[in-house]
Specification:
Oligomer: single chain
Structural class: alpha/beta
Distance between the termini: 83 Å
Shape: globular
CATH class of the largest domain: Alpha Beta
Order of helices and strands: HEHEHEHEHEHEHEHEEHHEH
Radius of gyration: 24 Å
Length: 327
């Protein structure tokens, strides 16, 4: 004998039956290979970040689709970013981003800005260290900034990326100490390795660069650590190196790295990558890599990353203007 449900129960059940397919449609995941696009040649910090993500996702199974790293160097990273946007319909094209995405736009090197992508996360920070040749007779960060206050051009400073994150860090240090940063004596190099070599050879007094390039030299006493622009001290070879804040210079700035997607990603696509990156940041394999490479955990989800980029832009614009690189 057939069983009939009361009419008052039929409508909710009918709604539930209709809602199930709609709910299923809201779940998105990559339908093809995931490509992490790197706007530099292999071997750079951008490239290493992408390849660690590739390895971690493969080992953990967080991303079940095949993951490849695609190098698209040129145009200060813009070639890679445009490539991601040209394939926007897939939403499985990702790009590694860093402060250069902001500084290159603010200095007029490119019209491409972070608003032309969908920010998905900030993952890590490559902390920026200032160190001196022992013959420069600078024992502390305070002695360094005091020398700059007396004469901004009295100390030569080597770095890669004029107008980039290392230059910004030096500018922030000088500004916080009351230095006329428009008169700083900066010597630019194509890479941090070349900048470090110049200081080791006594051709330049001080270097500002990534912790990974300088830590071992400070530990070996070939360079004198002056300060680190991180929120807290690092461990390992840099455990004894004080932050600038500890030395009375109110500066924190990191060469952060994150990931962005095409400009017009849907909420469902953003939610998928939020889940992936949030879980990635908690994996032991990921944390071990950060420690090994003298990197810091700076994870932010998609919404927080957009707010962070807006704040960074507001911070960078005036300091780049004072350094003579922005309008």
């Amino acid at each position: 004998m057939p069983t009939f449900l009361p009419r008052r129960l039929l409508a909710p059940l009918a709604f539930s039956a209709l809602a199930l397919p709609a709910m299923a449609q809201r779940v998105w995941k990559p339908g093809r290979d995931v490509e992490i696009v790197v706007g530099t040649d292999p071997g750079t910090g951008f490239d290493r970040t992408a390849r660690v993500l590739q390895a971690v996702w493969k080992a953990s199974g967080l991303v079940t689709a095949p993951v490849t790293v695609l190098n698209k160097p040129g145009g200060a990273g813009v070639i890679g970013y445009h490539f991601v946007n040209e394939r926007a319909r897939f939403a499985d094209e990702l790009a590694i981003i860093a402060p250069l995405l902001l500084t290159n736009n603010l200095t007029g090197s490119t019209d491409f800005s972070w608003h032309d992508l969908t920010p998905l996360c900030v993952l890590l920070g490559e902390e920026i260290v200032t160190a001196a040749n022992p013959n420069a007779h600078l024992a502390t960060g305070r002695e360094f900034v005091d020398a700059l206050k007396r004469d901004p051009a009295s100390v030569s400073v080597a770095m890669s990326g004029i107008g980039g994150q290392n230059h910004v860090t030096l500018g922030l240090i000088g500004k916080a100490a009351g230095v006329d940063i428009s008169k700083l004596k900066v010597v630019g190099f194509t890479g941090s390795g070349d900048a470090v070599t110049a200081v080791l050879g006594g051709h330049v007094d001080v270097v500002v660069g990534p912790a990974s390039s300088i830590a071992g030299l400070i530990e070996a006493k070939r360079l004198v650590g002056l300060g680190i622009a991180s929120e807290a001290r690092l461990g390992g070879a840099l455990a004894a190196l004080p932050t600038w804040q500890e030395q009375g210079i109110a500066v924190t700035f990191t060469n952060w790295r994150g990931v962005a997607g095409p400009k017009s990603m849907s909420p469902q696509q953003i939610a998928y990558w939020d889940g992936v990156f949030g879980k990635t940041a908690q994996l032991k394999m990921w944390k071990d890599e950060l420690t090994r490479s003298q990197l810091s955990d700076h994870y932010l989800d998609a919404a927080a990353t957009s707010a962070f980029l807006a704040q960074q832009e507001a911070t960078l614009r005036p300091i780049l203007k004072q350094l003579g690189f922005a309008q």
